[in-house]
Amino acid sequence: MNIFGAMYDKTMQWSRHRFAVFWLCLVSFIEAIFFPVPPDVMLIPMSMAKPKDALKLAFYTALASVMGGMIGYGLGYYAFDFVQGYIIKLGYQPYWDTAISWFEKWGILVVFVAGFSPIPYKIFTIAAGVMQMAFLPFIATAFISRLARFVLVAKLAAWGGEKFAAKLRKSIELIGWSVVVLAVMAYLILR
Asked: Which residues fall within 8 angstroms of residue 40, CB to CB, at 6 or more apart?
């Protein structure tokens, strides 16, 4: 079955769409609050399609992520009782427990690490509000961290450019099915 090749082609097509930057910013904004898909899924093909715009795209992604992070912070600060049920329902409780313990040990440094962590970023933004971190240091640290991550991702994708996109397209079915198999195995092992 060639599912991933068609999805890859569509993603590359969307990365060149005239509203692609808007959608990138929207995904980055809502990912910091509740959305499960990281903005890298859009940033990478957009940076491969337009390598000269990679830094600009990374900046927009980081800015939108931090703006979404402010909303996540507010939810943690003002409405955690409401949000807590969703954390449990979505299976984020282990991530939540880890984030809280990290905040208790390392404080503001956790926000910097969160930009690169495999733990969903929204967990950290909400936890920062619950822990009542100082808001301005939270924003500054989040921006530095998110910008560093997205610049790294965008520049690596841009460096590969169209040549890498073509090579990736040839292997996308193998990569896609490998990820599915690994996800199923992880689920079976961790449940």
From this structure: 150, 153
pLDDT, one tens digit per residue, over 24-66 is 999 899 999 988 778 888 898 889 888 999 999 999 999 999 9
Q: How far apart are CA 71 and CA 69, in angstroms?
A: 5
Closest to 113 measured CA to CA, from 130, 127, 99, 126:
99
Provide the angle, in degrees to the nearest 10, between the axes of the packed helices 80-89 and 54-78: 110
* Domain positions in the chain: 3-184
Dihedral sign of CA atoms 28, 146, 94, 182 in order? positive
Rounded CA-CA distance 128/177 in Å is 36
Rounded CA separation 106/62 (Å): 23
pTM of the predicted structure, to 2 decimals:
0.79
59 Cβ contact list (under 8 Å, min separation 6): 147, 150, 151
